[in-house]
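Incident log, structure service

09:12 report received: a user says their structure output differs between two submissions of the same chain.
09:20 pulled the input from the user's history:
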Amino acid sequence: MKKSVALCFIVLNAMLYAQTDSVQNPEKDWKRGGIAKLLFNQTAFSEWASGGQNSVSLSFHTDYDLSYSKNGWNWDTKFLGDFGLTKLSGTKFLRKTNDRFDLQSFLGKKFSSTWNYSTVFGIKTQFARGFKYGEDDEGNEIRDLKTHFFSPVYIQLGVGLYWKKSKDLWVNIAPFTQRLTLVSRKFTMELPDGKKYFGVRKGDNHRFELGASVNAFYKFSPMENMILEQRLGLYSDYLDKAENIDVDYQIAAELRVNEYVSTNLILQLVYDDNAVQNLQVREVFGVGVRMALK
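09:34 re-ran on a clean worker, output below:
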């Protein structure tokens, strides 16, 4: 965990000192836009000597920004949505490959050319139910419900400082941040004694945390037709194991073939011992059809 946190701070430090060629357009107070992508993957085998399993997967991704800037006030809102399904030959159920609902909003008042006093608000959850898969005594595939929409949901509100070089490079530091985790009692009532569900105790439906958070974003083009995005989120709870920092780091690479077709790679690393006491890794790769949103 210490190595993961050190790596994230190195990345954040590099982001703070990186240069960007992005230029804001001052013509309008309101700006909005984003992209939607549909990623497709297929694997098929026929009499393949080394073996293999046929599969088809489909994933949808959307990234939308809404911002307002006037008289020293900045309001930036970003929404990220991901949902994907896969079907493996010989299995009974469709399985999720992706499920993410992430909304973050920053309100800032400038006191220098790049620094703002800020308030940050965020919601993180998922769109659909999540299952754990296994087999019964007869070898039949079964699944147990583990999560669903708004269970869990993380609601975060904090105050601090917002450094914004451009819409493609910014960092928000909030030393006073509350985070509320809400879950369904359906899951906590069935917990064994001493166990927790995403940090929530048996019979409860929420967990309150008070701590510090850091959020950062950097988007740039290292070469023609290639876009790299980095997102970093850190959170430390003053009330419980402050040294145990939650980490959410994502890097996304897009190589554009043309205006509508691109190759995409997403790698996400998450550490949150209230959910899983190990480093969580998510990787998505595929050819996508992209569409601009206005």
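09:41 both user submissions now match this output. Likely a transient worker issue. Closing.
09:42 reviewer note: The longest helix spans residues 2-17. Residues 1-26 have pLDDT under 50 and may be disordered.
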